[in-house]
Structures are given as C-alpha cells and as structure tokens.
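Researcher: I'd like a candidate sequence for this fold, 234 residues long. If you have to choose between options at a position, lean toward the conservative one.
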C-alpha cells in the first residue's frame, strides 16, 4: 500500500512482482528462516525477475519477458526476502536523472521540482518516500551513490565481482568499469545485513565466478573513529 502511495506521488515503480503472497506462504512453512525473512525488497528495473521484462527504459526490450530470476533475486528469495516491485531508471541507465519514454519521469519525494538522481532513481525515490525499506540498485559511475545522496539514503557500491552481475537487459555500451549491484536503504545496518545475506553459499554455488568470501563483520566494525589530533594532522 505504501509503495502504491509513493508511486502515485513520484512515479517510481515500473512493475509489481506477482507471486509475493505465495512466496510468503511458502516461507512460513520453512523450518529455516533466512537472514532477510519476510522483508519486502524493491528491485531496479534492469534486474531479471521471472515473468517480467527488464526494459532498461528502452522500447526494444518491452516484448522480452524473462524466463528466470537473476542470481541475486534467487539469493534474496533463498534468504527469505520478498522482491515485490521493480523500480524506474533513466533510458539506457547511463544518466544521473531518472526518466525514460516508457515510464516517464521519477520525481524526488522531498521536492517534486528536483530529480531523485540516477540511474537507480526509482529505488532512491521509493525508499526515501517510505515505500520500501531495502532495495537493490546498480552502480557503474555513481548510479547507487548519486540517488542515495540526492534522496538522503545510504547506499553501497560493492567491489567489482563481489556479487553476481544482474543477468539483465543487454547494455548498449561496453564499459571499462565493472558495474555492480548493491543495496540501498535508510541506514548502514540494513546495507550490512543485506550484504551478509547475499554473500552466502547459495550465491557462490549459483555463480562460481564470484569469489566465495563471506561478509566480514569485523572489518565493518573495525574502523576506529579518528581522534581530533589525527584529523588535524591528516
């Protein structure tokens, strides 16, 4: 309901993922609860979900319904997460705004005169507007970091090849920088939980090209804040 309301105001959702209810019923019957048990998760438009298109904002992909979930969606489901909507992007995704000829312009929930940033702008707008608590965006040159900044959120672009790539609509560009999927949320703890959930055996089995290195909680918590004297010296 919240997502629908936010979408009416800022036009950030491109599709609702059917089968959410069934998935929740299935999860309730499972003995083992995953790290993301019961959490609704929004997914950037170009990430494949079974039975849905991955348009990339381009008309030529509109007829291509995907036959299976991308690895990241499979892993989110394995961990009990419930992908429930796909979110808007700029055409071709190489842009820091969020508009395309199919779904139109996404607005910033804090100021409809402003852009939510891009290319994960639908994610930024939906999470900032209160329609999602955790989303998956992607970033080559700022596509998670820009909307996170524009919408006052936390976002993480992981190291290249840390997470299985999207399995998404073909990009018309050959890029020298590795594009990465990553989490977006309102706080750092949510990003850490999502990374911990994604970097699991299931991910490493489904995509053997991903190095099987689990999330290291100690590295995240090990950064001691700089003392005032160290800050003055740096």
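Model: Candidate sequence:
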């Amino acid at each position: 309901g919240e997502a629908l309301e936010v979408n009416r105001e800022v036009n950030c959702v491109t599709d609702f993922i059917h089968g959410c209810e069934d998935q929740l019923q299935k999860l309730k019957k499972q003995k083992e609860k995953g790290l993301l048990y019961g959490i609704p998760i929004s997914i950037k438009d170009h990430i494949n979900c079974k039975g849905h298109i991955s348009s990339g904002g381009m008309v030529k992909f509109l007829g291509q319904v995907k036959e299976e979930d991308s690895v990241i969606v499979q892993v989110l489901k394995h961990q009990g997460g419930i992908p429930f909507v796909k979110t808007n992007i700029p055409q071709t995704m190489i842009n820091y705004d969020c508009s395309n000829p199919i779904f139109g312009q996404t607005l910033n929930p804090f100021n409809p005169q402003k852009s939510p940033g891009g290319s994960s702008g639908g994610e930024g707008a939906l999470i900032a507007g209160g329609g999602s608590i955790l989303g998956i965006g992607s970033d080559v040159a700022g596509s998670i970091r820009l909307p996170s900044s524009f919408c006052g959120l936390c976002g993480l672009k992981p190291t290249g090849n840390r997470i299985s790539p999207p399995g998404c609509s073909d990009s018309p560009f050959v890029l020298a920088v590795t594009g990465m999927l990553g989490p977006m949320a309102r706080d750092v703890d949510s990003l850490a939980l999502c990374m911990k959930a994604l970097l699991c055996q299931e991910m490493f089995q489904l995509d053997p090209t991903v190095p099987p290195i689990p999330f290291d909680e100690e590295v995240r918590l090990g950064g001691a804040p700089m003392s005032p004297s160290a800050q003055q010296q740096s």
